[in-house]
Design a protein that fits this description.
Layout lengths: L4 E5 L2 E6 L2 E5 L6 E3 L9 E5 L2 E5 L4 E5 L4
Antiparallel strand pairs: 1-2, 2-3, 3-4, 5-6, 6-7
């Protein structure tokens, strides 16, 4: 599948592939590309329902809405 990094969030996964992030629902295994602005993703992590992306210069913060 080619994912290069992953984190866990509420029993689901957020995966990185080619500078894009994907959300994977654990119960269905379905992957959904996250709708984010074009950013260089050097590192990312999540707490509660907040996603943080570090681009090498700034830390960007996004609210995750799981539907």
């Amino acid at each position: 599948m080619g994912f290069t990094d992953l984190i866990e969030l509420n029993d689901n996964l957020i995966l990185k592939k080619e500078n894009k992030l994907y959300f994977m629902f654990q119960d269905s295994g379905e992957f959904i590309q996250m709708d984010l602005p074009e950013l260089l993703i050097k590192a990312f992590f999540a707490t509660d329902e907040t996603l943080y992306i570090y681009d090498g210069e700034f830390l960007h913060k996004y609210q995750i809405k799981i539907i």
